[in-house]
Amino acid sequence: MRRAGVLAFAGVLALAIIGVGEAEAPDPSRATITSRVLRVIDGDTVDIRGSQRVRLLGIDTPELGEPYSEEAIAFTKRLLLFKTVRLELDVKERDVYDRLLAYAYVETDEGWVMANLEIVRAGLARLLIIPPNGKYRAQFEAAQLEAMIHHRGLWGTVGEVLTVSELEARISEVVNQVVTVRLTVAAVLAAGNGRRVDPSETRFGFHLFLVATCPPVSLGPGTEILATGVVEYASLKDGPRILIEDPTQIVLATDVEAGSP
């Protein structure tokens, strides 16, 4: 990997860690239920003693038959199956299927870890934060960002930071992969149910698309950013794009450089 890519990754992670440091940290002592995992249903659902089904909060692993579903199940089995777990609940304790909604802590050789976060950090789950639950949102966002930047699991195999020109030149290689691209904002336009961000460097229509549900991101012409996400290429007319669903997918280049050694 090029040195610029390494420095950029280090900067993005440093910023994420700073944000997490300001939030409440997970703590197994807050758990109110201790039980044993007897069965793993899928990557984010397990059964514990007493015939209780538990849905792990904050995450969504691939459904059976989808890419990385088997890897997610195997990871959850290694982490939780036949292990004693401590379960911490959030505001809403059960879902419409009467599953217990919980953060699951398990003791490893390195100490207690939250399984939900470890699955995200391994790149085997996307975030699924449904209010009123969301106590550890900052930690989940940082874990997903780490997985995306290091292209683990769901997040693809393209390891370096690309320029817009490099992305467009390698479009057949990077389509449907997660990439980090460095670009300069030329314009931000209303488009359908969201906003379109056009970079000044594009020759073939590459752009970012911020979905309507994405919290506001302040981007003006001339702003240099790093954006991470899946490259989509549905049509020649629209050109390739990266869908932005969460503000953590975008980092100011100046912040990355300030946080780099």
UniProtKB/TrEMBL annotation:
The GO terms describing molecular function are:
3' overhang single-stranded DNA endodeoxyribonuclease activity
Report the superkingdom from the record. Answer: Bacteria
Q: What class of enzyme is it?
A: hydrolase
Which SUPFAM superfamilies does the record cross-reference, listed alphabetically? Answer: Staphylococcal nuclease (SSF50199)
- Kindly indicate whether the keyword Nuclease belongs to this entry: yes
EC numbers, comma separated? 3.1.31.1
Q: Which UniProt keywords apply?
A: Endonuclease, Hydrolase, Nuclease
**Name of the protein:** Putative Micrococcal nuclease
Provenance organism: Candidatus Bipolaricaulis anaerobius
